[in-house]
């Protein structure tokens, strides 16, 4: 009888621990996306977006190697966007450990 109580307590503790699995870390930030892609090298030579993250004041534009879900980039326009960054729990070996998703298009301005 005592064994059954110990076993039930262990199972209950295990189930309680599983119900509190951590949520992926999520962050929302505002970016400016340049009107032209730039040559960059990831796994192979490619064209990257140039972004400036507004959470880092006075930062220079940096290469962005990944994709932004729900964002349809058109060259010739400068964008201000809100982007949600979510940490991927078990990323594929050849994929990013962060998922990016467009939250809001703040502006789209034609540039020459």
Automatic annotation (TrEMBL):
UniProt-listed PROSITE patterns: PROKAR_LIPOPROTEIN
UniProt source species: Formosimonas limnophila
Record keywords: Signal
InterPro entries: DUF4377
Signal peptide (from-to): 1-24
Protein name as it appears in the record: DUF4377 domain-containing protein
Chain ranges of the DUF4377 domain: 32-108
Pfam families cross-referenced by the UniProt entry: DUF4377
Keyword Membrane: no
Organism lineage string: Bacteria, Pseudomonadati, Pseudomonadota, Betaproteobacteria, Burkholderiales
């Amino acid at each position: 009888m005592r064994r059954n109580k110990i076993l039930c307590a262990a199972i209950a503790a295990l189930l309680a621990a599983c119900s509190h699995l951590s949520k992926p870390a999520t962050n929302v930030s505002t970016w400016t996306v340049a009107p032209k892609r730039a040559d960059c090298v990831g796994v192979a030579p490619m064209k990257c977006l140039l972004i400036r993250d507004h959470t880092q004041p006075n930062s220079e534009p940096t290469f962005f190697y990944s994709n932004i879900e729900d964002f349809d980039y058109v060259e010739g326009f400068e964008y201000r966007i809100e982007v949600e960054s979510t940490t991927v729990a078990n990323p594929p070996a050849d994929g990013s450990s962060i998922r990016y998703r467009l939250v809001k298009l703040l502006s789209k301005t034609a540039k020459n």
